[in-house]
Structures are given as C-alpha cells and as structure tokens.
C-alpha cells in the first residue's frame, strides 16, 4: 500500500506525546478509543514515546495488538514535549491532525466538536480553549495568566490566552509546520503566527488522571524563555534601554562628583564607587546573558542537528518484542534514512 493512498484514505490523526505515562495510558486509551470509533471516519493514533524510563512503550505495544489504529513511535532519547510533538506531526498522515496529551486534562470527547467545526466552517485550525481552570493550582493559573499576557504583547493579539497544545490542524498547516526549520519550536505560538483561518472550541480543564505533571516549575520557566527568545527580539531591546538608563545614572553621578569637587566638599568615595561598580557589573551581565540566549540559538541552528531520532515506528517496522533489550536491538537495525528527521 503506497504512502499516498494511506494519506488520502485517513481522515484523522491523533498525535500524543508521552513521557513516563504508564499509569495514565490505560485510562487515556479507554477514553479516546470510543470517541474515535464513534466519529465514523478513518483514523490513526500516533503515540510518540519521548524516551520514557518506565513501561510506557511496552504497554502501548500490548494495547496495539487489539487496536490496529494505534501507532507507536519511539524516540531514542528524551527530547522534550515540543520536539516529541514535532516527531508526531512528521509521522501523522491524516487529512486533519489533533494534538493532545495523555493525562486527560484535555477531554478527548472534544475532538468530535473540533472536527465538525473545522469541516462546517472550512477552518484550518481549531483551538481547544480552557473555559475553566479551577482544577489547576492558584500558582499555575496565575503564572499561566502572566505567560499568555506577555506572549500576547510580544507575538500579537491573535494569540488566545487560554489555548495550549490541544488543537486540530488541517493537512496544509501540518505540512507547513513540518517544513519549518525551528530548532526549539513552541507550537502554541508558531501555529497562531501562521495566520491560517481558525476557530475555538471551549472545554473545562480536568485534573490529571494519573501520574505526575510533566511541566514542573523548571520546565515552565524554560518554556517561557524559549517562547520569548524564539519569537521576539524584545529582550535585546530591554538590554539596550537598560544600558541607556544606567549610562544616564552614571552620568548623573559624574556630574554630582564634579560639583562636589568644585564646591570643595570632601566625602568618602568608596561607597559611590562600590555602588557604581556593582550597578554596571549587574547590567553588563544581564545584557551578556540575554545576548547569549540568542547566540546560543544561532549556534544550534548552524549545527543543524536533528531535533529527534526515531528508534522505531510500528507502522513501518514491528519491534521483535516488548522487552526493553529486544527493542534496543531492533532500534539499532533501523536504517538511518528512516530514523532521522529534521
């Protein structure tokens, strides 16, 4: 069966990045499968294992024995949620592609509404927008509010303030994303910036069904840094303005020093010198740090290393066993041209 025939015959692809989700896999499949079976369309589920250390892959392979529409794409190592999502988008072949996490905070039942809205209104993107986040902690709600407020200022007003990575996209949008050369993609910002016709479907955000959150504070901070530096040069402008303000302050200190010398006022000079050195040093380090973030991204882009490497894809090659050692052996036999994606 040719790839073009499979592509044209599939209406829907559901891409699900997973990292150490063994506790949530069964719950997720039990909710997702009846929804997709009830849509009356051809579909596939692309479960991308992001280098899990638990038995996520083994359980997915077991579930696949009774669910032929389930594909398992295992990455060789953990590359992060957004890069794992990129691997899923590269593998997906449906006319429409939905991205959803396996923790069931985003309800699979909403997928039908997304597909219906995209078809009836001829939309290329349908965002899942959270109308109620009461299940999240107060800290997470507040920090999320600040994040989206800042992103709307930097990226533009077209960004929804409550849309994450739960969305439906048409084939043309997915192909466009796959053609981009983003080294550190942040799809919740990339997709709106493309300008495709879009709509929204609201839902109530639920609690995680099992396991621990994969977005602790450290990863939330990293996402924020990637979001800002990937979409705006504003921090460099902040560094410039900070340098100008500091220069004016130092100029004022110079004028006051000259005036004090002219009036013969004798004061100890070490305090003002100490403050000036600290102030200038702090500003210089901040500016160098901001500049370093951009230089680091330029360096990564010039290296042109792949964002991810696929160990195996069950749609192209079946692993010999669900045992970890057998999976490793099978992964080693995958041809380089099939295993490497950019």
From TrEMBL:
Superkingdom as given in the UniProt entry: Bacteria
GO cellular component, one term: plasma membrane
Locations listed in the record: Membrane
Family annotation (SUPFAM superfamilies): Nucleotide-diphospho-sugar transferases
Domain Glycosyltransferase 2-like: 13-175
Main location: membrane
Alphabetical keyword list: Glycosyltransferase, Membrane, Transferase, Transmembrane, Transmembrane helix
Annotated coiled-coil segments of the chain: none
Single GO MF annotation: glycosyltransferase activity
Topology term for the membrane: Multi-pass membrane protein
CDD domains per the UniProt record, alphabetical: DPM1_like_bac
TM region(s), chain numbering: 238-261, 273-295
Stated family: Belongs to the glycosyltransferase 2 family.
Record-given protein name: Putative glycosyltransferase
Source organism: Actinoplanes missouriensis (strain ATCC 14538 / DSM 43046 / CBS 188.64 / JCM 3121 / NBRC 102363 / NCIMB 12654 / NRRL B-3342 / UNCC 431)
Taxonomic lineage: Bacteria, Bacillati, Actinomycetota, Actinomycetes, Micromonosporales
């Amino acid at each position: 069966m040719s790839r073009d025939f499979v592509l044209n015959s599939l209406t829907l692809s559901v891409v699900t990045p997973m990292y150490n989700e063994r506790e949530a896999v069964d719950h997720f499949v039990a909710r997702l499968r009846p929804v997709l079976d009830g849509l009356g369309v051809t579909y596939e589920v692309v479960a991308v294992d992001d280098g899990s250390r638990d038995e996520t892959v083994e359980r997915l392979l077991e579930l696949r024995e009774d669910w032929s529409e389930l594909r398992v794409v295992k990455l060789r190592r953990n590359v992060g949620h957004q890069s794992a999502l990129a691997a899923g988008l590269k593998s997906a072949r449906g006319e429409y592609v939905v991205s959803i996490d396996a923790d069931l905070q985003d309800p699979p039942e909403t997928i039908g509404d997304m597909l219906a809205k995209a078809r009836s209104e001829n939309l290329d993107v349908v965002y899942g927008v959270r109308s109620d986040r009461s299940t999240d902690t107060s800290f997470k709600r507040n920090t999320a509010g600040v994040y989206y407020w800042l992103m709307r200022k930097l990226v533009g007003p077209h960004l929804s303030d409550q849309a994450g990575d739960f969305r439906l996209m048409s084939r043309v949008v997915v192909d466009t994303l796959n053609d981009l050369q983003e080294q550190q993609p942040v799809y919740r910002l990339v997709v709106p910036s493309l300008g495709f016709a879009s709509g929204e479907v609201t839902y109530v955000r639920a609690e995680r069904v099992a396991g621990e959150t994969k977005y602790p504070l450290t990863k939330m901070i990293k996402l924020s840094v990637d979001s800002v530096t990937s979409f705006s040069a504003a921090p460099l402008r902040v560094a410039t303005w900070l340098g100008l303000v500091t220069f004016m302050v130092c100029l004022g200190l110079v004028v006051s020093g000259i005036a004090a010398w002219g009036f013969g006022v004798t004061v100890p000079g070490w305090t003002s010198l100490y403050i000036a050195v600290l102030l200038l040093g702090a500003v210089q380090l901040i500016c160098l740090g901001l500049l370093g973030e951009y230089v680091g991204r330029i360096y990564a882009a010039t290296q042109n290393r792949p964002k991810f490497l696929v160990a195996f894809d069950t749609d192209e090659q079946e692993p010999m066993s669900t045992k970890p050692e057998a999976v490793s052996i099978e992964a080693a036999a995958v041809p380089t041209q099939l295993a490497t994606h950019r």
